[in-house]
């Protein structure tokens, strides 16, 4: 399993060297966009609309837009120093709380933690302590240039880091439109709804839930393999032809722009002087 991050978890005077691995993976079936005429994949380029040309990575700077079309440009060295300062900090557990106190709306992404060299004993200590107390640790850590709020918890034999949203990242429910303030429900309807919930209540077994759309899409792709198309090869410019075209165009333009030579004026013969 690929190691995404190395660091330490600390609580009190205990430091645990750990490695972090992605606990989940995106299995969405990604479809490419092709040019219908020649089946060539469509490119997405970084283009400056003012200069009307494609921009290279080294020409790009990062900035914060504090008002419409008003930007504060940030220096890459300052950003790198700030990120390194935060990355070098250990993952410090700030508090221990009960898992049920955190609403699922806060949860974002899960990562497995494994002990790094020399950390097995302390890793096992934290795992057992969390399991027996039923608590989770609340911590801060840097992941991909962003300071994350996270919880440290136990999942089977592994310690898991679960990144969670900060409170100001969760939108206020008051902003949700068309929510009635008070709903009056009849006792008969409510009792029937409760009865239905009781009938459908079961133990949670995640393995019984599958992505039916992804399965159907993969089946559809398999059925259409006979219709495989090959994208057109990128045309290689013919330098000789292009050069001849350019030379011919230049010659035609030169002929067109060249001023026509003016015809010499005919001399008028001098009149003979009459003899006296």
Structural description of this entry:
By secondary structure, this protein is an alpha+beta fold. It has a domain at 5-24 and 63-171: Ku70, Chain: A, Domain 2, CATH 2.40.290. It contains five helices and eleven strands. The protein has helices spanning 76-87, 120-133, 187-200, 212-223, 239-257; strands spanning 5-11, 14-22, 47-48, 53-54, 62-67, 70-74, 91-98, 107-115, 135-143, 146-155, 158-164. The strands form three sheets. The chain has a seven-stranded mixed β-barrel. It has a two-stranded antiparallel sheet with strand order 3-4. Strands 5-6 form a two-stranded antiparallel ribbon. A hairpin with a 4-residue loop joins strand 3 (47-48) and strand 4. The mean pLDDT is 82.
Q: What features would you highlight for this structure?
A:
alpha+beta, seven-stranded mixed barrel, 27% strand
